[in-house]
Amino acid sequence: MAISPCITFIGGGNMCEAILSGLLKTGHPTSHVRVSEPFEQRRDYLRSKYGVDVFADNNAAITGESEAQASKGVDVDVVVLAVKPQVVGDVVRGLSAVLTKAKPLVISIVAGVVIRDFARWIGSESVPIVRLMPNTPALVGEGAAGMYADSNVSAEQKKQTEYVVCNIAKEYFWVDKEAGIDAVTAISGSGPAYFFLIIEAMEKAGAELGLPADTAKRLAAQTALGAARMVLTSEDDVATLRRKVTSPNGTTHAAIEKMIESKVPEGIEAGVNACNARCSSLSNEFGKL
């Protein structure tokens, strides 16, 4: 892209800040960012820390009217919806006129809401929409993400999406069916919590074996980080990596056998499938709003 797109964030929470911070660190101009945020204290914080225009009104944030200073006169290219699922229907309905008129690329990071519902709330099927599922490690620059684009999204707008995503995710992929976003949610969107659970269990076990709790936590966390790095950089598949560190009748073998006996792999697979099923049920619930 020759020119940095003008991006408006609807919702100024943690994920907005992660994307915003990444964009500005890589040279994206403050004149090409606007944020809408309902809470005054949060607006003041974002405005003070990042020097971008921050609005109380969603429509004004897209049009750049009234409160715009740094971004005055700049037309919006991308609108990132970063609001809670419970309010997204009302928010999008309130934006329907401006979205229909401006037809910016709409990127939704709202879990469980499908494109047909966005189109219904907007009142138009011609607004280009991308569903993006990032995850919370984006807050520390270690995110993963999946993306799905509807048929209105152009090749240039896909590049704009990747421009946004590359600032928060080290691994990101397009899926060719919208249902694939539910699978992305089940693996990487909710995935950090799975690893937190594992690290929590390892920390507890380490403390029970006599290690200071903080030492056990840091050992477990660094081990998880190192193992992940090996998976991403090794030519071996994951099963081979596991076998290479599992000597027959050794200490690791004893641990792995006990975990398999306790059906740890089956439990993790069941959890991923439960997450995927919940995504589908949430979509049905939002479809009634």
Summarize the structure.
The chain is an alpha/beta fold and 289 residues long.
Number of strands: 8
Distance, first to last CA = 37 Å
Total domain count = 2
Share of helix among residues?
40-55%
Q: Which second-level CATH architecture of the largest domain applies? A: 3-Layer(aba) Sandwich
Computed Rg: 22 Å
- CATH-derived topology of the largest domain: Rossmann fold
InterPro entries: 6-PGluconate_DH-like_C_sf, NAD(P)-bd_dom_sf, P5C_Rdtase_cat_N, P5CR_dimer, Pyrroline-COOH_reductase
Protein name: Pyrroline-5-carboxylate reductase
Keywords: NADP, Oxidoreductase
GO molecular function: pyrroline-5-carboxylate reductase activity
Compile the SSE list and pairings.
Blueprint: E1 7-10, H1 14-25, E2 33-36, H2 40-50, E3 53-55, H3 58-63, E4 78-81, H4 88-102, E5 105-108, H5 115-122, E6 129-133, E7 143-149, H6 155-165, E8 169-174, H7 179-189, H8 191-208, H9 213-233, H10 238-244, H11 251-261, H12 264-286
Parallel strand pairs: 1-2, 1-4, 2-3, 4-5, 5-6, 7-8
Antiparallel strand pairs: 6-7
Question: Could you explain the architecture of this structure?
Answer:
By secondary structure, the chain is α/β, with parallel strands linked by helices. It has two domains: about 5-175, NAD(P)-binding Rossmann-like Domain (Rossmann fold, 3-Layer(aba) Sandwich); about 190-275, Orthogonal Bundle (ProC C-terminal domain-like fold). Helix content is about 55%, strand content about 15%. Helix 4 links the parallel strand 4 and strand 5. The mean pLDDT is about 90.
